[in-house]
Amino acid sequence: MRISNQSIYSSIKFNLASTSDSMLQANQVISSGKRINRLSDDPVGQVSVMSLRSSLENLEQMERNINVGRSWLNAGETAMSQIQDILTDTKVLCIEMANATQNASTRAIAAEEVEGSLEQILSLANTQVDGRYIFSGTTTDTAPYSSSSGYVYGGNDTEFEVNIAKGINVAVGRVGTDVFGSDGGDDNIFQTLTDLQNSLSSNDIPGIHTAMEELDDQMNRLGSLIADTGAKETRLDVKENIIQDLRLVYTDRKSTVEDADMAEAVMNLKARETAYQAALASASKVMNLSLVNFL
Questions:
Q1: What percent of the chain is predicted at pLDDT more than 90?
Q2: Which end is more exposed in the chain, N or C (fewer Cβ atoms within 10 Å of the end residue's Cβ)?
Q3: CATH for 64-253, among 3.40.50.2300, 2.40.50.140, 3.40.47.10, 1.20.1330.10?
């Protein structure tokens, strides 16, 4: 059966295109360093790579959450430690002012010092991280305390949390009443300092003694919260180490599936180039060097 020139031209053209495409794919492997550049290269491998990429992205998000959480915990620990120091100094002042050698005049001066301490604690109570209040529960855009409201807590009763793993959250913010005491109660730091200021101003020694006892309770509460913060920081550190180990594992798996063996890829490209050159030479002979004109 006689084969028409058109059939010969079409066959040669198809073979050259196929060989050229094969050479292009081999070149892409070398250029990208990846053996999988499209789904058809390895459908099963591509699905595995996509899953590993998703896992790595999740790990990156967890790391970002941990960094946010660490910032909040550090800020909270610093603020509470400074408040504890202020209360310690205030207790020392109480001991001094409760002494019979003091008089109404010196106690009135001490009252002004307590007022300054009250302002410092108010500022620390409104500590922010990236523009968000850390002692307002989850209402992080609302200042927890203000002197104009009589130091009444303005946040909610839900701790602000960050997600560090699937189904695992860590509370990094605080509810203001847990730190500063219930509104108007004997455990309230603002109320204690306000009462102490009034007692000093009115030369009320029993009131000074009462404030001393309340300050002890409040310093103990702050100490417990600071210790709890340290435990949470350790928990974040442990989780971060786990995430770093997982990233290495996932990255290695992804590289094993996706990355090309460069020595093998170069040899493959050379083979494809040789095949293409041979196809061109064969086509030239068959077509008496007229294939280019046909194309």
A1: 62
A2: N
A3: 1.20.1330.10
